[in-house]
Design brief:
single chain; about 350 residues; alpha/beta; 13 helices; about 40% helix; about 25% strand; disordered N terminus; disordered C terminus; binds adenosine-5'-triphosphate; binds magnesium ion
C-alpha cells in the first residue's frame, strides 16, 4: 500500500498505484466578476504528461499560477508531490520548475548570466551555478550564443533559455505554459524533442497549449477546459472516439448549392453536419465503416447534381474534438474575438447543453 502524504494526513491509495504527482480538486478562482476557475479537478500520475487545452481565457494560466504557488485559489485544493500549494508553498517550490507564458529572462544579461543567477536563486554555490549553466546551455543548443545579451536571441532561443532556467533545480514536476507559441515549425519540433527527453528522464509535465497537434504528440492525458470548467478529459484517442467515428469532408465550390448538398447527405450524418460557410466546406460524422459512407455520399451528391471537390474520409483530429466540445475550432479562437466567434460560441453552448 502506498500513501499520499498530505500535510501530515495519510491517504490510502489503491494497491499498485502510486501517489499522483499533481492532484487538483474543486479548484476555484475569481478575479472580481470574472470566474476564471469554477471547480477544476484532475490528477497527473508521476512521470506522465498532462496536456491542458482550452481557448483564450479558458483558465489555463490561472491553473498553472495556482499550482506553482504564484496565486492563491479561492477554493478547492492542489497538491504537488504530496505538498499542498497553499499550506506548504516552499516545499512545492522545491519540487517544481516553471516556464511561463511570458519568458522570465533578463534581456540585458547574457544567456549564461541568466542561468547562473537562477542557479544562485536555487541556493547553488557559484561554482555549481556556473557548471549547471554550462551543462544546460550545451543541452539546449545555445552554447554558441552563451555570452550574448538574451535580447539578441531569436524567439526560439529565448524559449529554450527560459526552459533551461526552469530546469536548474532538477524539478520533479515541470509546468510549461504554451512552450511553443510563436515558434516556427522547426523550432517547435526541436522543443518537442527536448520535452520528450525530459519526460523519458522521469519528469512529470503539465503543458498548456493551443496547438492540438502538440497535445496529440506529447500528452498521455488531455484535459480540456473552457470557461473555467473541465469539459472533457482522457487520452487523445478517447477524445477522438467521442466525436463519433470517421468524418467525410468535401467542399462545394458553388456556395448557392450548399443547402442542396446538405440535404443530399443529411441521412448519412450522425448528428448535425458542420458547415464552414466561408470555405464551402462540409464535414459529416459517419460513425464506423466510413468507406461505405464515403461512396454513398459521392452517389447522393451526384444524384442531386451538386459538384464537389476534395472529397475525403479521415479519422477525427483533436481539432474536431475541440469543435464538437466548444462549438469553435482552436484556431478560430486565436484569430480574435469578433462577432462571428460569439455566434459560434452560442451554438457551442447549446451543443454542450444537449450532451449533458
Ligand atoms: N490578474 C487577473 N485579473 C483579472 N482577470 C484575470 C486575471 N488573470 C486572469 N484573468 C481572467 O481570468 C480568465 C482566465 O484567464 P487565463 O489567463 O487563465 O486564461 P488562459 O486559458 O491562460 O488564456 P490564454 O490562452 O489567452 O493564455 C480570463 O477571463 C482572464 O481575463
Ligand atoms: Mg494563458
Amino acid at each position: 500500500m502506498t500513501h499520499l502524504v498530505d500535510e501530515g494526513r495519510f491517504v490510502d491509495m489503491p494497491e499498485g498505484t502510486s501517489a499522483p504527482a499533481i492532484l487538483v480538486e474543486g479548484l476555484r478562482k475569481s478575479f472580481g466578476p470574472v470566474h476564471a476557475l469554477r471547480g477544476v479537478d484532475f490528477t497527473v500520475p508521476s512521470g506522465t504528461v498532462l496536456g491542458l487545452l482550452g481557448p483564450n481565457g479558458a483558465g489555463k494560466t490561472t491553473v498553472v499560477r495556482i499550482l506553482t504557488t504564484l496565486l492563491e485559489p479561492d477554493g478547492g485544493r492542489a497538491v504537488i508531490e504530496g505538498h499542498d500549494v497553499v499550506h506548504a508553498p516552499a516545499a512545492v517550490r522545491r519540487n517544481i520548475g516553471l516556464a511561463g507564458q511570458a519568458t522570465a529572462i533578463q534581456p540585458e544579461l547574457t544567456g549564461r548570466e541568466n542561468l547562473e543567477i537562477v542557479g544562485r536563486l536555487h541556493h547553488l554555490s557559484w561554482p555549481q551555478s556556473r557548471q549547471r549553466a554550462v551543462d544546460l546551455l550545451e543541452r539546449f543548443d545555445i552554447a554558441d550564443a552563451a555570452d550574448r545579451p538574451a535580447k539578441t536571441y531569436s524567439g526560439g532561443m529565448q524559449r529554450r533559455l527560459d526552459l533551461a532556467a526552469s530546469l536548474i533545480g532538477h524539478p520533479a514536476v515541470l509546468f510549461l505554459d504554451e512552450p511553443t507559441t510563436g515558434l516556427d515549425p522547426r523550432s517547435r519540433l526541436g522543443m518537442w524533442d527536448v520535452i520528450r527527453e525530459l519526460v523519458s528522464g522521469g519528469t512529470t509535465l503539465l503543458l498548456t497549449t493551443q496547438y492540438l497537434d502538440e497535445a496529440d504528440e506529447l500528452a498521455d492525458q488531455i484535459v480540456v477546459i473552457d470557461h473555467g470548467l473541465v469539459i472533457a478529459a482522457g487520452s487523445a484517442e478517447q477524445l477522438k472516439d467521442r466525436v463519433g467515428g470517421d468524418l467525410v469532408e468535401f467542399t462545394v465550390p458553388d456556395r448557392t448549392r450548399l443547402a442542396d448538398a446538405l440535404a443530399a447527405v443529411s441521412g448519412l450524418s450522425e448528428g448535425d453536419p458542420h458547415v464552414d460557410q466561408d470555405a464551402g466546406r462540409v464535414t459529416i460524422s459517419v460513425g464506423v465503416g466510413g468507406s461505405e459512407a464515403l461512396v454513398d455520399a459521392v452517389r447522393r451528391l451526384d444524384g442531386a447534381g451538386v459538384a464537389t471537390v476534395g472529397m475525403s474520409l479521415r479519422r477525427p483530429s483533436l481539432d474536431d474534438v475541440f469543435l464538437a466540445l466548444t462549438g469553435h475550432g482552436a484556431e478560430d479562437e486565436s484569430r480574435g474575438r469578433g462577432g462571428r466567434r460569439r455566434g459560434r460560441r452560442r451554438r457551442g453552448a447549446e451543443r454542450r447543453a444537449d450532451t449533458t
